[in-house]
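Human:
If only I could read backbone structure tokens as easily as an amino acid sequence. I am handing you a single protein, as its sequence and its fold in token form. I hope you can help me see how the letters and the tokens relate. Thank you; the sequence and its tokens follow:
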Amino acid sequence: MIVWFNCKISDIRLTPQPRYHLRTDDRLDVAKYSLASFRPLDEVTSKWIFNFELADGCAGKEKEFEDWIRENFPADKTVINWYRCNHYEQWQEMADLVNAEDDELIFPAGNEDHIFMDTDIELFKEGLELVKNDSDPNAVFFTSHYPELARCSFYFNPEGITENKHFTWYVLGSNDALRVMKKGLFNEYVQKIKNNKNIFYRTEDWNQLSLPVCKIYCPTKEQFRHYDGYAHVRIGADIAPPLEIPAGFFDKSMTIKYGFDQREEGAVNINPQMESFFAEDGAGTDYKFSLEDIPLFWKEHIKEIQINPDSDSEQLIEARDAQLLKMSRCEAHWDFMGIVFDNNNYPPAERVNCWTKSIDFTDE
């Protein structure tokens, strides 16, 4: 897999998303946090291509950012360009670089604000194999936006699920960033840009083009999470709040507090039994997953894990599973297609996360 970022990093947001009760982190730090989450994928990555334009409050920090990238990514795989591709000639230059690699898959990772949240990369590797081995040249693996994808995959194809229940799939003439694809499809998009007079600087802008119909594989376990949340599809902080960079992340001194009812400032508070999120009301927990769900990229940054001795581990797992169901069955709006994924029907638990321990699939 070839990973390619192509974006402007700026502290001025074109479409600002609500932060609710969360702080607003420096966008260069957000970019570092996002890239750090990608590092576990180095095992399956043949080339890292970074096209970054630093603007506004981030301008002039190229050396700082490049030094950080060089410290965290292998030199023999890494290409850094301090410009964002805006025009066809630049896109074609990147396509030539991609096509020179002996690798069939490319991951246009889009913007610098999606965070790899899985506990290992086994499911991600399975997604790569699904795309690689599918005879459909337009098969893709959609890696992020889990809450809305759980609904839309059921909406478009309620029967589409792999035998092991690790992935659902549907077919749609739509494509944007964060989808692993074959190089042939990527090259097709580049050629469409050639025939279009608009400036194209985001892979999300492919939706402006005449798009081929794609077979889209969606994991039933969350892979990436959008740092700024999902308010753009009307999913609020009570379901899937935006993220913050955990205190102590960059100096590897994170403290995890698990199962406590009282939130502690300066720690990462995880309690799926709490009624609310901190982002939602300024009083709840930071995360509602379990200890077994701690993101892989966090692990080398954690100094201490404190577990409430009075907590019930089984009840915490059950509460985690309930939150997963709630997140996958929430109402979402695709205004650009005039679709509302509402409560009239929702996916059964086996399409949500087949790794959960307390959900009885037969009772769905």
Notes: Residues 2-226 form a domain with the Spore Coat Polysaccharide Biosynthesis Protein SpsA; Chain A fold (CATH 3.90.550). The mean pLDDT is 92. Helices lie at 27-38, 62-72, 88-99, 122-133, 146-156, 183-194, 278-281, 313-328.
